Each structure stands twice: as C-alpha cells, then as structure tokens.
Amino acid sequence: MIRGLRTAASGMLAQQMSMDTIAHNLANVNTTGFKRIRMAFEDLLYEKLRPATGQAGESGSPNPLEIGHGSHVVATERLFSQGESETTNNPLDLIIQGEGFLQFVQPDGTIAYSRDGALKVDSEGRLVNASGYVLEPEITLPQDSTSVAITTDGRVIAQTAGSTTPAELGQILLARFLNPGALEGQGGNLLQASAAAGDPVVGAPEELGLGRTIQGSLERSNVQVVEEMVALIMAQRAFELNSKAVQSADEMLSIVNNLRRI
Questions:
Q1: What's residue 178's pLDDT?
Q2: Which residues make Cβ contacts (< 8 Å) with residue 213, sequence separation at least 6?
Q3: Structure pTM?
Q4: 240 and 234 Cβ atoms separated by less than 8 Å
C-alpha cells in the first residue's frame, strides 16, 4: 500500500508536468515561429518478486512476477513541423519554407537560432531581431534605402535614392541540425545549440537541404489548439485517476491501522 501511494504520486507529478507543458504550448499559440513541445514519459524501476522459470520441456512459470514503481518525465522535445504562413507584406518579414534557422549574435558573442523572421533595422542600419540581436552574417542597409528585396536564396537587395541600379548588400545564411529536437529554448523566440543537437550545418537557402526564404510573410506557431485541448483533458483525467489511487491506498492503510485483535 505504501508502494501504491508512491507510485500514484509519481503519476500525479508526471501529469502535472504534462499539463504545464500543454499550457505553455497554448500560451504561445500566436507566437511567431514557435514550435510545440511534446513530453516523453518512461516507467520507473521494477521490483522483481519472481523471475520467469522453466525451460523447454520443464515445468515452471512462463511469466515473471514484478511490480512497477510508476512513471516520470524523461525528456521534452520540440516538433519542427512547418507552421502556417501569414502574409504581412512587410519587406523585412521573412519566412523559412523548409528546414533551417536564422542566426543571431547574442551580447556574449554566442549564436542563437530562431524561426522568427520578423526582422528590424537598428540605428546603424543593421538587420536585427526584436531583442536587438544582430543577424549573422551582418547585413547593413544604407541610410538612403528606399526599398528592400529578399530573394528565395537569401540575397538582400536594396534600392537607394538617386540610383537606378539596385545594390546587393549580402546574403542571409541559414543553419540546420541533425537533431533539432535537442535544441534548448532560452526565451525570446531563440534556441541554443546543445551537444546532442550536433554541429550546425550553415549555408545559403535552397542549398545543403536548407529551405528557401520568402519575403513579406511570417511563420505562425505550429500549435494545434484542438490537439492541445484533447491532450489537456487526457492529462487531467490521468491526474484524477492517480489521485483516486492515492485515496484508495490511504483508505486501505486506514483499515489496516484500525484492525483489532479479537
């Protein structure tokens, strides 16, 4: 019965974390480039009360007798399915159609990765994200730019005042990972590389398996509200059932505690 209390408690803790993750997904349903997170569970250590015995032609138990000790959360994984495209007609908005991440230089000099293509221009004319982190490689727009075009292969072309010939300012490079699910979130629509993700493969769009860049659009979150609500109901029901198992174990302990010798 004590084992039952602990086993049910482990299930309640696991479902609580599952509900936290679902709530996080729903909170970011309108976050540009957000990728939904899925939680992975695994069962805990088993107590072996009796092994399976008996070889061919001999009597014995064909099945072992073992009791599990519940479950726990083993990992979280981001699912990088393509989100829907939202047309904005903003020349600095960018969507990556296919694999790849934009690269931004953080204040400490490290590179962060993002699917959020809502680019801005800082006071020096550099392309940055909403937090002011500079796009890598750095691309600077002339102060007298009148229009900007971004091609599907990432080339940035600007038209300046008094000139009839557009100027190519540079090329946006993308990065992809062998195991993108191992990227670590750090807020601000940014992801950080980890050893499990592998080394980044950096190249121009439409090369090395990278997607293409489309100007004037943004990628919406890939969170499906209906799916998350169904998962939320399942997690809630599982939490309730585990809580009832705790109550049942407590009642059984109470009965044993109140036994009297005749």
A1: 93
A2: 94, 95, 96, 97, 117, 150, 151, 152, 153, 154, 172, 174, 205
A3: 0.84
A4: no
